[in-house]
Amino acid sequence: MNFSAKIFVLLCFCSQFLHSQSKEIRFLSGKDAEHTKEWDFWVSAGRKSGNWNKIQVPSHWEQQGFGSYNYGRDYVTYGRNFKFNDETGFYKYQFTVPNSWKRKTINIVFEGSMTDTEVKINGQLAGEIHQGAFYEFKYDISDKIQFGKENILEVKVSKMSANKSVNNAERLADYWILGGIFRPVYFEASPKEHISWTAIDAKADGTFRSEIHLKGINSANNIKVELFDAQNNWVGESQVQIQKGDTLKQIQFSLKNPKLWTAETPNLYKAKFTLNKNRKTIFQSEEKFGFRTIEIRKGDGIFINGTKVKMKGINRHVWWPETGRAVTENIDLLDVQLIKEMNMNAVRCSHYPPNKSFLKICDSLGLYVLDELAGWQKKYSTEVGKNLVREMVTRDANHPSIIFWSNGNEGGHNFDLDAEFAKYDLSNRPVIHAHHKPGNAFNGIDCNHYEDYYSTKKILEGENIYMPTEFLHAQDDGGGATSLADYWDLHWNSKKGAGGFLWAFVDEGLVRTDFNNQIDVNAINAPDGILGPHREKEGSFYAIREIYSPVKIDLKTLPKDFKGIIPVENRYHFTNLNQCQFEWKLVNFKTPFSSESGFDIIKTGKVEAPNIPPIEKGIINLNLPVGWKESEGLLLTATDAFGKEIYTWTWKLKSNDEISKKLSKSLIKEFPVSIVENDSLFILKSDEKEFAIGKKDGVLKSVVVDKKGKKMSFRNGPVFVNGTMELYSIKSFAEGTNQGIEANYKNGNKIIWKLNSQGILELNYEYSLSGDYQFAGVSFDEPENYVISAKWLGKGPYHVWKNRLQGQTYNVWQNLKNSSRTGQLPWIYPEFKGYFDDISWIQLDTAEGKITVGTKEEKMFVRLFDFYGIYGAEGYPKLPSGNISFLDAIPPLGTVLAFNINDKTETLGPESEANHLNGTFKRTLYFYFGLPDLGDENKQFTMPKENVLTD
Length: 951
Fold this sequence. Notes:
By secondary structure, the chain is mainly beta. The chain folds into 5 domains: about 25-190, Galactose-binding domain-like (Jelly Rolls), CATH 2.60.120; about 195-290, Sandwich (Immunoglobulin-like); about 300-545, TIM Barrel (Alpha-Beta Barrel); about 550-640, Immunoglobulin-like, CATH 2.60.40; about 675-930, Beta-galactosidase, Chain A, domain 5 (Distorted Sandwich). About 10% of the residues lie in helices and about 35% in strands. Strands 48-49-50-51-60-57-56-53-54 form a 9-stranded antiparallel β-sheet. It comes from Chryseobacterium shandongense.
């Protein structure tokens, strides 16, 4: 045997030896919902019932075409006499076990099965029936295995539990209730002498403690614990002697200056536990952990490593439309990345413990986790609950990301279980109760749900820390980021404000295998997400990203004397802004008559990151180059210490008046302008274009765009969206080469039309208002079914509300027409319809031609067609007249909950009040119908790109 072969054999032997001394895993099911195995299956009722078939495991049997569907609130919908589909599934699977396992302890592990689960090996019960869907449980089946022969696994799963409290806690809930073995099933084979599990407590001062639970100790006489850093460098160790029959040993030692774990600095270590007999390894296991200290300082706040933190959190159900609560590690990773992309730092695992992989990813990428025992609005019995607390905590206790345990939700708290968590959690994390009624603070933290802005202020003046575990319910397009800026500033600036958790992460849309795989959100019950079922991003996603940005920049428009200095606040808890990177771009925007959207980059530059400690304020000096004012836009991008973009802010450098004049200069052809009239109309003419204005109301009646008399359907405006339009006087006039019409109204409002020689129809209007209004401005009519797409220079690409203007950036955007309703099929985002912010010009491409509208004044909103924020018996809020509106004010949006469903959004804070208007409002609009001949000199109208600077 040559040298290489000897080395290979030695490595194989060492590998096999080490493997035999550690826990071996052999999957009986697939590893996740994407990688499944086929088992035999029989279901008692519903689709494909009464016959043996094949099923993929793990899965929900409904998603495999078996049984029937129920939403958890069906008992509310249909009344007390409603009975859930009480289906029972029977699984069979044949397996073999290697002879090498004969001297091992063999456990069969179920990571999650809905709901009551009875397990048999070769006809023998593995143990007591397990009750509770979301918890990992196992049975020692060492004495039931036939080695070297075929074995049979039989599993009976009852969708509804025989225990009423389990059904109350898990099944009578506001979410889809499903059945089946939905998480992996596998064997664990360990040496007879082994470590069954470990509990770790690693404090910020470097103190490491562990409780090591042992089984079968006969000859082992030593445990060694070694610590390794993230680069697998050994950093410390300790040992403890053991004796025959020991079941628990404790060990404690210290590490100097460990790198601490926080959501901003997710530093992980590894502990290797070795069970020895006279220096010979019998068994090894490993656990990842982090050094960090959690404190609840009553009347003050939540402290991590001695620093007060505030939760920018969201509620997350484990969910994927095709597979329900059976998911994959990639889905868990995607969700953590999306939560962090919103600049959040926390997640609540509502309303049950998540997959193990989700917690591992929270550890490694950095999120504070609230891990929750199920109990939607009713509680487990003490007998069942004790078992489930033990299973939950022993599985999850070593994750540094978990900051709190939650004992149930909204009344689903069994107080007898509060003390159970500490029995298995060596670090003794705080236990909280997720309330929905005031006066239920626990452990110094009030978690009351869905308080409005002003009741939140009152709670924050009380004795307890306030951390709502649900707030701003995001059904459809409501809640989420609407009014979040007010809430967040309230918590940020309050001593006892600890932040909170928005409801909720995704619309819980389920692919219905009984309805041709259509996605169902159960009407108004489940479209509660910031994202769609496949993680389609709603407008709130981007608004949250700006609101929760740890680099806080409030500069909405640049002052006239702007010299490149931008005020900034550091809203990190542990990170100095000098650990971030900043880059600016000077850009020129595409024109409405260009075939492209977006901008051309003129110059770029990097910024010296300012030295601003956490929670302090300072400035960023952009050091812009000479001539920067010649550009049209300024962008600033902040990137975090890990290279991830935090946010990009944009500012316009040219006024709308300058933009309009530039566009006007690009129209090189001129034609004589005339005016004719008949009994009912004034008709303004320029070349082939004609615009008819009604003599009785001053409103546009028709548009003709060519010599053949081709009409466009844009008409019936401007109509003032508030008040009446009783005409007082109307007349025509000439102004140089322009022709015009002036209409005055009895309430003092005024409209002036002008047509110039370039074919631009100018509209000047003014109106006066005094009071509170949902919206203000003017509207027109345009057949929605004629519209193909929209392109605009302004904020976008998502629509906005008065109390959710954040998250949209200034650019030239394009959007193909869609009929998406936020939170409903077909989840095509961004939505085409809605209110759009800070519009300089907008161009509609229609079946009849293009309509381009610009404005001279600043801060114009455009409303596109009919849409609503929240859908119920009626959509709300109400809309202006017409279906294309040019507005100076738009409404706020509330949430679906009762206290503001009737447009009482003012309870959500200052941003959510109606528009307080007092005075006269004036605006000039420019309309151009069709496409102009720009001529050769304008083919290079957009400034060319220059080389990127690297200063």
